[in-house]
Specification:
Layout: H1 3-13, E1 17-22, H2 27-38, H3 46-50, H4 52-56, E2 67-76, E3 91-92, H5 101-118, E4 123-126, H6 134-141, E5 145-146, E6 152-153, E7 161-168, H7 187-191, E8 197-198, E9 201-202, H8 208-214, H9 221-227, E10 230-232, H10 236-239, E11 249-250, H11 258-261, H12 267-270, H13 273-279, H14 290-304, H15 310-316, H16 322-335, H17 338-345, H18 350-360, H19 365-372
Parallel strand pairs: 3-10
Antiparallel strand pairs: 1-2, 2-7, 2-11, 4-7, 5-6, 8-9
Helix pairs in contact: 1-5, 14-16, 15-16, 16-17, 16-18, 17-18
The structure holds iron/sulfur cluster (2 copies).
Residues 147-149, 153, 182, 185-188, 240-243 line the site of one iron/sulfur cluster.
């Protein structure tokens, strides 16, 4: 058996889908990625600009690497029962229902890299944060095609997948991309609540996943309208995709947890930053952190006009983070909580006080977002 085949089978025995591709970026993928960056569609994700050269030409940095074993781990979790008690509002993207997928996949990559070294092969694994275009490698390797929602879709399964890449010093055969099967379908484009999907792919400046996960700072006022009842991430361009009606099952190292699918929002307002970091260390919520999760929760409470969340809005007036107090001002405005807005006009942070005053004085939404966002 060849070393390529031995490595692929080893990954498949772990329960992963695995396919080889040479480590190259096709010209069309390069052009598309660079045009997306040039258009500013990466929003505040500046690390994508900083690593763009390596992403489009990975062998400039990984001179020793000739190939990539692309791995896909399914996460089509079944519906979970909402736990009792607490304030459980809003939706969490399905991928975040299990403790952090990075750790599980990084451990699998370490096992594979050790196995590769035993075969005399140099290898290094990446999950998400590597300077690689995973979607391009996955498409070339034949894991699946790239949908209009920019996700990789596997025929007969759909798009609920995490990708990981093992770079190796082996020569891989020519790429064998999977045929694109979107056809004339535009279901994800039409289902996107913010019209974020266009010719260049997903524009992060309009994407709920970007605002609720990647953007740590204040939100401009208009973003509160955008995010609806999404607490963390957004799955609307996946649930609308007809291929996902086949999606069932998940990798045996993932463990969906109802406390992550339906978190008690109270925790985002009562835990200290350190206690939050400890409690959610192994989850996707650690990426935005406590204050951003509290901000997201305030937006959900306001957008759902949820009375059970009002005590949390009142509690947020005394939050140690000015970002959370500013979000409390916006939520109070939307919920008609004049007393909360009054209190926040006296906030020691001038930005919070100005936001609350502007809302009390009825400043138009867009002006407020531009002025203070
Ligand atoms: S994640 Fe949500 S907001 Fe972003 S492109 Fe998909 S449907 Fe649109
Ligand atoms: S919804 Fe349609 S267009 Fe969008 S990814 Fe799925 S098949 Fe492709």
């Amino acid at each position: 058996m060849s070393r390529l085949e031995a490595l692929r089978l080893r990954a498949e025995r772990m329960g992963l889908w695995a396919r080889w591709t040479p480590l190259v970026t096709p010209e069309a993928d390069k052009r598309r990625f660079l045009a997306w960056l040039d258009a500013g569609a990466h929003a505040g994700m500046d690390w994508l600009v900083r690593t763009a050269d390596t992403r489009v030409a990975p062998r400039t940095r990984f001179g020793w690497a000739k190939s990539a074993l692309v791995l896909a781990a399914p996460y089509a979790y079944p519906e979970l029962e909402r736990p009792r008690g607490g304030v459980r509002l809003g939706r969490v993207a399905r991928y975040a229902w299990s403790p952090d997928y990075h750790r599980a996949l990084a451990a699998a990559l370490d096992e594979l890299a050790a196995f590769a070294r035993g075969l005399g092969v140099e290898a290094k694994g990446y999950v998400d944060f590597g300077p690689l275009l995973e979607w391009s490698l996955a498409r070339q390797a034949g894991i699946g095609w790239q949908g209009k929602n920019t996700l990789i879709l596997v025929e007969g399964f759909g798009s609920y997948l995490h990708l990981a890449v093992l770079l190796t010093s082996l020569e891989a055969p020519e790429p064998a991309p999977a045929p694109a099967r979107c056809g004339r379908c535009t279901a994800c484009v039409r289902a996107c609540p913010t019209a974020a999907i266009g010719a260049l792919g997903v524009d992060a400046r309009r994407c709920i996943s970007y605002w609720t996960i990647e953007h740590r700072g204040d939100w401009p006022a208009w973003v509160y309208d955008l995010t609806g009842d999404w607490l963390f991430g957004c799955d609307d361009c996946q649930t609308s995709c007809p291929w996902n009606r086949f999606a069932k099952g998940y990798w045996n190292r993932f463990a969906p947890d109802p406390e992550l699918a339906y978190p008690d929002l109270t925790l985002f307002f009562t835990l200290s930053g350190r206690a939050f970091a400890r409690r959610f260390a192994h989850t996707a919520f650690a990426r935005p952190g406590r204050a951003a999760m509290a901000r997201n929760a305030l937006a959900v409470i306001a957008n759902l006009q949820a009375e059970e969340g009002i005590p949390l809005v009142k509690k947020a007036v005394h939050d140690q983070s000015s970002r959370v107090r500013k979000a409390a001002a916006e939520a109070a405005f939307r919920l008609g909580l004049r007393g909360v807005l009054d209190a926040l006009t006296k906030d020691l942070d001038p930005g919070v006080a100005a936001w609350a005053r502007a809302r009390l004085e009825g400043a138009p939404l867009d002006d407020l977002g531009d002025a203070l966002g």
